[in-house]
Structure prediction request, 189 residues.
Amino acid sequence: MAKTVAPAIYQLKITLAAVRPAIWRRLLVPSSVTLKDLHDILQIALGWTDSHLHQFEAQGQLFGKPDRESPVPMRNEARVHLGEVLLRAKDSMLYEYDFGDGWMHKIVVEKIVSPSPKVKAPCCVAGVRACPPEDCGGPYGYAEFLKAIRDPSHPEHEDMVEWLGGEFDPAYFDLEDVNQQLAPWRRGL
Prediction:
């Protein structure tokens, strides 16, 4: 009888492009995860709300939810596994979220490790800074948003605080909370 081999574990670093200081997460993810599931995991780890369209780009191909009306060919993300797209350490791909705001993320395979009972994947092992609020206008809009909320005398300060519905700390990142939200995925993958 053939022995079932567990999928490899990918250590991924996801960095939000065009934002300074950097916003990034380091995740451990099974190579067997579909790109659709990876999208869901990224939404949790980064702090997005899955309110917008997205796509992956790797090896000159687009992956996402196919749309018959779109002139751009796209492979179905639900049928493609991470290990089929990123094959070795240092391989990378792009993940775009919210085509209007244009949040581009670079995903890099830092290393690939053998499965181990000690490794509970998916999980977030590190990260820095809060995810920008949804619909704040992309990297440029986010920079303007930060200026406004940091300066009570800024003409947009009160409007931005009201729009946000309260305080925002751009330096805040809660690793434990992210992993609590990812816990159900560890049972489902």
Remarks:
- The first helix runs from residue 35 to 46.
- The first strand starts at residue 9 and ends at 16.
